[in-house]
Amino acid sequence: MKHLILLLTFLQCCLTVFAQKEPPLSTISGTCNYAKDGDSVFLASLSRGGLMPIDTAFIKNGKFTLQDRTGATTLRAVLVIENSMPITATDFVLESGVNLVINFNNSETNPVEIPNSKVNDIWTNLSRFEQSQNSKIEALWPLIADSTKSIDERLKIKQMIDSISVSTYSHYAKAIYDNIPLGISGMLLGIHYQSLSKEDLDKIMDQMKKKSPNDPYYQSLAEKFKVEAETAVGQPFKEIALIDVNGSMKRLSSIVKESKLVLVDFWASWCAPCIAEMPNIRKIYARYHAKGLQIYGVSLDENQLSWQSAIQRYALNWIHVSDLKGWQSKAAQDYSIQSIPSMLLIDSSTGKIIAKNLRGQELENKIAEFFK
Hints:
alpha+beta, Glutaredoxin, 25% strand
């Protein structure tokens, strides 16, 4: 079950992966030889809110059947519930349109069986490998905290931990590459791409382009990397046209035209790090606005009252726009915003992005350098 949390890594960057209208039906048939008739069984996916039920069934004669429609190979969970408490659970890989069997047994050595499923064999082997690697790392961490050891000894231990982590992700990279074009390769790529070396990632993306160009995870990441390249430092800014707090359209291009330097700040009222950064931004605005700095705040809020209240509460006296669509905001997608706060600076004389992802003193130093 612990692997389900890994889905949060890539759900944000694959928001449109499952947009098919009617994916093929998948059936999960199972047995649980220690459950009673009438015990409930849940099939669940993972969202930002936690496990989200997809289908429910009841045990009869130790058997159950669940159904799902997923447009891509993905992780799911099955939980058997007795008296409102889970008595067993497992995470597994579900392929679109595939019928799967899951057997829960009393065996301590093999409590879950998923026969005749290559992708789940791959997932199980990788999970065991990861657990083994994590055990090695967990054994080393206390040694770093051991005050009787010298700094050099602790550094060597840290290097050992880093080496284990590198070998873990090299192992994942090989598993992804070797199993293309199976859908689990795309799924694993979506989970682990941020931890892979550039060499491994490039190699995998090239292979997927050749062998599985229609894989939804590959397509999502390819689009993400394309957008990141288009909005990298040195590239022209992309237009944003959104409604401000007064209901008027405010185009980024018009703000750029009227200013010398524009700070585009992607933020939200519910984002604690964003709010923590606001005193610094207020200070920068007070110091450089008269010299030609303008701030164009793009909110990823969904609630208008929360958005406007935060602007007033924290005295954010610059331009604010939003379409109130949260992470689905077109502006956030056009700039491949994966986390907030996220900021970029636009030199109005060239219309090009001159800095990205600066905060605190680094942001202030960059703006001070511009206005020298």
